[in-house]
């Protein structure tokens, strides 16, 4: 490995702490950990990769078998062991075991094999992990802050051993993926997301903190489970809930400063919008379900227009699902239309139609709609059936985020194909069982003409001699690089223009080769380079908007972003 490069195309890191090839001295390992304790410290343990000299210097002689392995050989062994398991949950547990004993090797394995391991540490396995998190829990991977801690949240934050935190991912477990209220077991989400912040975005693991805010659960099955690990009470609402969240947000800023990123994850629809609206002007906050999903879908939509033709403003959208994901995507698409085509937001919104469980959202339903949905209620007759809606609205793009499996039926897909030469069909819901349709169904029913993307991964599919490689509209294209951009610029607020910058940066990474295979997202094996480009563009926009505090502004933000990315190569100890 080039001593001046990071995994995935970066250059020498600015922290000067991540390159074993540079002969770095780490004197604190003598005082912090040596001998048996060093082997049990996942931040410093290298297992059989400790050299003969290191074994003598750090009292490891006799505690390890005599063989000395390279990190590359260790990685090969780990992959061999993981591949022996048949069930994704077994593979997940093997990776957790690795992370708990050797952090750098865990991230090297993850960085070098994203296509194979991302479905294990992220969707779709992440949902199953949360369903079983209570029985899987063995040692803390983050902080659990419950209503019992009200009045002393700051004190609880101080219990975390790392004092410099730059990224927090927090959930209240209210709406985990498409699985609903999983209460305290939703902790699997922040843990998984932050592993990807490091592996895909290069944010150092030591500055990442997963947090579970336990405000109770309305899941009766969990409340009756004798092994449930969370509070045994109904979910707090109203003033009690928001007072607790307010204490948490104040404590975070007090303990970690104004530049710490707080990413909201899998909060219930109404709470998610209210929290984002409330804190976006006072804290550095980002909601991945609203803004992250919106950014990655907008990137795919921008890329899809290269295949369908026409400008974004020329397209008409139907969203099947009007929750935080659907409305967030719709709003960002409208903002991009307004920005690029110089049309008012009200006009841009008229190209976008939303469908909830009651059917098409129209003006006659305004009195019964939540506030964040009302401006999507257009003049039209109320239709309930999706097929009738598609026939009447005649969209060019159909996007699903309702968590209703197989909602895009053969008839719906065929109708989209009869209206459009290249219908764009995006089935975002996950896990796979909740996907609105499969890749095979979309390509077959459209006779190979659909431009397809999904929230869950699907295998390549051949139709009439042409191979299609469906792309996953995965949030991890966006949030790791987006977060890195905020960190390296020292941003203190997130503006919508920064989210648009991330979307356009991602769309710009789609190659002609990707387009030829029907992909509207780039290859995932280049994700670290993609994240660096996103980080650079987000940071640039932060500087342009005057919300960046890390001065002076670097001359080359792309190189600077790459230089800041964590590298998991072992350090040399002496």
Summarize this structure briefly.
This protein is α/β, with parallel strands linked by helices and 574 residues long. The protein is 43% helix and 10% strand.
- Biggest sheet descriptor: 7 strands, mixed
Cα Rg: 24 Å
- Tell me the strand order in the biggest sheet: 10-9-8-11-12-13-16
Query: Helical content, roughly?
Result: 40-55%
Shape estimate: globular
Our measurement of the CA-to-CA distance between the termini, rounded to an integer number of angstroms, reads 21 Å
Number of strands: 16
Low-confidence stretches: 1-31
The pLDDT mean sits at 92
Question: Assembly type of the shown chains?
Answer: single chain
Number of helices in the DSSP assignment: 25
How much β-strand is present in the residues?
5-15%
Q: Structural class of the helices, strands and pairings?
A: alpha/beta
What does this structure look like?
The protein has 574 residues and is an alpha/beta fold. Helix content is 43%, strand content 10%. It has 25 helices and 16 strands. The strands form four sheets. It has a seven-stranded mixed sheet with strand order 10-9-8-11-12-13-16, with helices on both faces. Strands 3-5-4-6-7 form a five-stranded parallel sheet, with helices on both faces. Helix 18 packs parallel to helix 19 (410-419) and helix 22 packs antiparallel against helix 24. The longest helix is centred in the middle third of the chain and has 21 residues, at 288-308. 52% of the residues are buried.
